[in-house]
Design brief:
- The protein is α+β, with helices and mostly antiparallel strands.
- It has a single domain, classed as ph1033 like domains (ph1033 like fold, Roll), CATH 3.10.590.
- Helices cover 27% and strands 32% of the residues.
- It has five helices and seven strands; from the N terminus they run E-H-E-H-E-E-E-E-H-H-E-H.
- Strands 1, 2, 3, 4, 5, 6 and 7 form a seven-stranded mixed β-sheet that branches.
- The longest helix is centred in the last third of the chain and has 12 residues.
- It starts with a strand and ends in a 6-residue tail after the last helix.
């Protein structure tokens, strides 16, 4: 099982909306590198839901429920979408400031290429995000 981070403006689609909907198709990704990562997602993988904009925090978890499919809202056949299912709201959001203050995250895409909307999250970093959310590590 792999971990991913998917970013979204909460005004567009929030973790609370996903919780209410239960499932959605994660679409609208156009960046080539983000699309490459989206195509690598597999059924059963876990994705962190990250709110962009003013919030800038990891706020929840989703489960990838199937492989990438052509984005039904686009005519460009290179664009894909991934089906996801709500898993959980994190106990405490993990802010970008907390992530940037922790040297363990220095090489992660979220820190180095903050505009990327889909990215892998190595297992040890996923464990740290969950530890921050659970209050097991002091937040910045």
């Amino acid at each position: 099982m792999a971990y991913w981070l998917f970013k979204q403006e909460p005004e567009s689609y929030s973790i609370s909306r996903l919780q209410a909907d239960g499932t959605t198709l994660w679409d609208g990704v156009t960046n080539a590198q983000a699309l490459m990562f989206l195509r690598q997602c597999a059924k059963g993988d876990t994705a962190f839901f990250y709110h962009t904009g003013d919030e800038k925090a990891v706020v929840g978890l989703m489960t990838i429920t199937g492989p990438a499919v052509p984005d039904p809202n686009e005519t460009n056949e290179k664009l894909v979408a991934v089906p996801v299912k709500f898993k959980a709201v994190l106990p405490k959001p993990v802010t970008l400031a907390t992530i940037k203050a922790d040297p363990a995250f220095a090489e992660w895409h979220l820190v180095k290429n903050s505009r990327l909307s889909v990215m892998p999250c190595p297992g040890p970093l996923a464990a740290r995000v969950l530890a921050y959310s659970a209050g097991e590590l002091p937040a910045a």
